[in-house]
Amino acid sequence: MEEFLTLKDHVYNYIAEQISGGNLIPGEKINENSISERLNISRTPVREALIQLASEGLLENSPRKGFAIKHLTVEEAKEIYLIIGVMDGLAVSLACSFLTEQAVKDMEFYTASMDLAIETGNFAMYHKLQEDFHNIYLVLCPNKSLVNLLLQLKKKFLRRSYIAEPQTDMKEILFATNEEHREIIRLIKDQDTAGLEHYLREVHWNTKKAYMETL
């Protein structure tokens, strides 16, 4: 059954899309009137969506300046990476025994597709495919409270573009990350739950990579 979306949900998705697409940048003030006019709705659902985005840490709400896109520092990104690494590792280890042969094949399909997206420089597609890859085991994880908390944290990394350190090839970085996806698949096939927890925490979500999520 299709999920019913309220006006607030539509506004939330619209603003989230603007952030993820790079149309709204850190520090930029949100113009509530402009959004209301563009979507042809009242300001009430706009403000409700902005309040929700602020509660999720994507916006800052200043009494005098209103809502603005929050700037994520490298240190904040590192802290979030550390937490996500622990939670994601636990989630995949709990889902491991529920992953069917078809599910693993789907994960292998996504890794191959990510290689193509990286090669063509389609980083937005890469972002979508890596979400699909991880969602395969998150959907099957029996601890739904854990998954909900994990997805909430991942929202802080909403944008779909990436930055690299000076003189570093982003394609090279993402190809290396995709090899990590293949290692995750190998560990799943081996039913190595301890190895999965360690690998997600120490390698896939290594805090040294957190700078890529900042602007």
Protein architecture, described:
There is one protein chain. The longest helix is centred in the middle third of the chain and has 22 residues, at 74-95. The mean pLDDT is 89. This protein has a two-stranded antiparallel ribbon. A hairpin with a 3-residue loop joins strand 1 and strand 2 (66-69). 27% of the residues are buried. Helix 4 runs antiparallel to helix 7. The chain starts with 6 loop residues before the first helix and ends in an 11-residue tail after the last helix. The chain has helices at residues 7-20, 32-39, 43-55, 74-95, 101-119, 123-140, 144-154, 170-189, 193-204; strands at residues 59-62, 66-69. It is mainly alpha-helical. Helix content is 64%, strand content 4%. It has two domains: 7-69, Arc Repressor Mutant, subunit A, CATH 1.10.10; 74-213, Four Helix Bundle (Hemerythrin (Met), subunit A), CATH 1.20.120.530.
